[in-house]
Amino acid sequence: MTAIADPRAPHAPARRKGPNLEKWGWIYMRASGVLLVVLIFGHLFVNLMLGEGIHGIDFAFVAGKFASPFWQWWDVLMLWLALIHGANGMRTIVNDYVTHPTTRRVLVWALWLAAAFLIVLGTLVVFTFDPCLGFDADTASDVIVSICA
């Protein structure tokens, strides 16, 4: 009896030495997915259900949240996990559908570079956010005045 090869798998790849990165990527996707559900629903609950709901979200609301290290780290953790989770998922799709090795390598590198750039940029925005730039006490809301005074 002849066995039929799996789709897009003309031959079984040889087992490499060292850590099994595909296994750790699979584990990361499950763990980060669970953690992201908690972080995202917490984020949505605080932003949409507490206080004035969606009508209360403005510059002062964001400034008030980013004045707290707890919310800075909450948002940064959500950012890091989501970007790495998404890049790893896209890497899996590229590996499944791009057959040319050089093209695959270029696309995977581009994915990780884009994710790294967005992680660095987003982290800088969260931790260097200063609501007091261009602060005008006459037109600012009470939250901004209390933060910048």
UniProtKB/TrEMBL annotation:
Annotated Gene3D superfamilies: Fumarate reductase/succinate dehydrogenase, transmembrane subunit
TM ranges: 25-50, 70-94, 106-129
Pfam family, one: Sdh_cyt
Keywords, comma-separated and alphabetical: Heme, Iron, Membrane, Metal-binding, Transmembrane, Transmembrane helix
Gene: sdhD
Highest taxon listed in the record's lineage: Bacteria
Protein name: Succinate dehydrogenase, hydrophobic membrane anchor protein
Subcellular compartments: Membrane
Organism: Microbacterium yannicii
InterPro entries xrefs: SQR/QFR_C/D (IPR034804), SuccDH_FuR_B_TM-su (IPR000701)
